[in-house]
Amino acid sequence: MICRARKTPSLWCYRRSVADVKPVRICAAPRRRTVSGPITLVLCRPRCGFWGYTNNIESVRELRLSFDRKSLGDCLGPDLDEGKAGTPELMFHNRRAVECARLLAAECDASDPSAGLYGEGLMIALLSACFQGRSRKEKSGLSASQLRLVLDYIHENLDASVSLIELARLVGLSSSQFARLFKASTGVSPHRYQLNTRIGKAQELLLLKGEGLSTVAAATGFADQSHFTRAFKRVIGATPREWRQDRTR
After folding, report:
1. Would you place residue 50 in the very low, low, confident or very high pLDDT band (cuts 50, 70, 90)?
2. Is the pTM of this model over 0.90?
3. Which domains does the chain have, with CATH numbers?
């Protein structure tokens, strides 16, 4: 039995694994088989207690996300559906939210997590999937002046941690609006644009005589040389050392 009461709104994601024990003739003992069941979501309000029970469940993998009401409004802005945000919902299915939750869980488990913009983007996408109202007509992208302001800021802060909220505030938008309009303007997410820009700057630095990999990593905002090497190889298809050797022969 589970009983919880939390001080903040919470979204819980569950994956059930059903233990099916059946005797098998070729084995001396019964064989245990694990079957992955559907992933369900639970949305509960602050201090909302609920209980549940398990029936023939061997294990449950759970992702809990707690957030305050004001932050939800800041993230989604006019996209927020007040009715959805204020109504508890138990054991429901949402394919888009589940996929975002899966990616968030993988990011939490990763030994070298990506830049903050990636995690923030996933969180905004997950919240939008659960709490966004009906889509409304809007402009196709950021204005030229807005886009230039944001791109200049990203380029000037390649070695720093830049948040989605920070970028959105530059142009007076909510995080969800900004992420959507930025992609409409550039064809890529803010995280992908920042990553591509960092890799491009790293390539320039790698061609400078005497620049070590750790120095290049720090100058382009990567956590360390190992993180830089893995990210560079994912984007370019070769390690920084290999790429530089090919171009300096």
Report:
1. low
2. no
3. 2-21+31-131 (no CATH), 188-247 (1.10.10.60)
